[in-house]
Amino acid sequence: MGIALFINPRSRANRKHPEGIHALAQAMGETGQVFSPPTLEAVSDLAVSLAQDPPDIIAIHGGDGTVHSVITRLIPAFAAFGNRPLPPLALLTGGTMNVVPRSLGLAAPPVAFMEHLARCQRAGQLPQTVSRSCLQVGQHYGFVFGNGSVAGFLQEYYSTGSYGTSRALWIGLRAMSSKLAGSAYSKHALPSFEGKVEVDGILQPGSSFTAVCAATVREVGLGFKLHNRADEDPARFNVVVVKGQPLELLADLLPVRLGQGISPARADSLLTNHVRLTPSTPDMPYTIDGDMYRTSGPLDLRMGPLLQLARPQ
């Protein structure tokens, strides 16, 4: 097959600019096939089909949530065939922020990236790749996890269907003003995580945390490098247990932007293979690569498989 191109027909970019799908198909030409599964069940079926007859490259056009949804179905499908490794993945930036490819220096105009992949195919070569493990969160796979205030902020961000930097800033300013005034909005937009946090089996002190964040890449969006230790050890991921209150964390905005992380006085930044979160409340929202989930029981975070991610030219 050569290249198998996943396109998310429901992504914001593809709904606004459907001509981009045609441009990608033209750039790929005869070197591969376009797949646009309409449902997650269809993605699962396609993953099994690709595992039976693997392509040389799997390209994914969509945002971080699309990448997360696709690899969550690809990894178990390939594992079912004798732990067959996934082919190289090409992350074609088709989302709003594209955190993962930008964090790893793999972001490129999608059509130009596809033209490069097609040239490699015609020459009988595979593209150069970057190795990076993903996270396994329960039965899902992704790169960036967050609960507490991170999940609450994203729920509020998504609530109107209007996205962008200006909306994110508006929510942040409103939540901070609410915190100062003692009103209820801050608890809604920036809730804490109530429960137990175990890192490699060691119980962390406290039972109330602003957020617990984990990732195998440095950035979390808008250029903020919360996980400044994510590149230190390829066999472990970076977990940041945030203890400081939201108003206190304003002092860390610039250091996080510069890749220096949150001050140890307000967060513990650790390298680990396993985190267990046990909520004391009946419902814990959390996010994986921008997609929202909820759980009422313990949640385990582990290192996922090592993936080969294609470099643009």
Please characterize this protein's 3D structure.
With about 325 residues, the chain is α+β, with helices and mostly antiparallel strands. Helices cover about 30% and strands about 30% of the residues. It contains ten helices and 17 strands. The protein has helices spanning about 10-15, 20-30, 40-50, 65-80, 100-105, 110-120, 150-160, 165-180, 185-190, 255; strands at about 5, 30-35, 55-60, 90-95, 130-135, 140, 145, 195-200, 200-205, 210, 210-215, 235-240, 265-270, 275-280, 285-290, 290-295, 300-310. The strands form three sheets. Strands 5, 6, 8, 9, 10, 14 and 17 form a seven-stranded antiparallel sheet that branches. A hairpin with a 2-residue loop joins strand 15 and strand 16. Helix 2 packs parallel to helix 6 (about 110-120) and helix 3 (about 40-50) crosses helix 4. The radius of gyration is 20 Å and the shape is globular. It starts with a strand and ends with a strand.
Model regions low in confidence, pLDDT < 50 over at least 5 residues: none
Helix-strand sequence: EHHEHEHEHHEEEHHHEEEEEHEEEEE
Average pLDDT confidence is 91
Computed over alpha carbons, the radius of gyration is 20 Å
Distance from N terminus to C terminus (CA atoms, Å) equals 22 Å
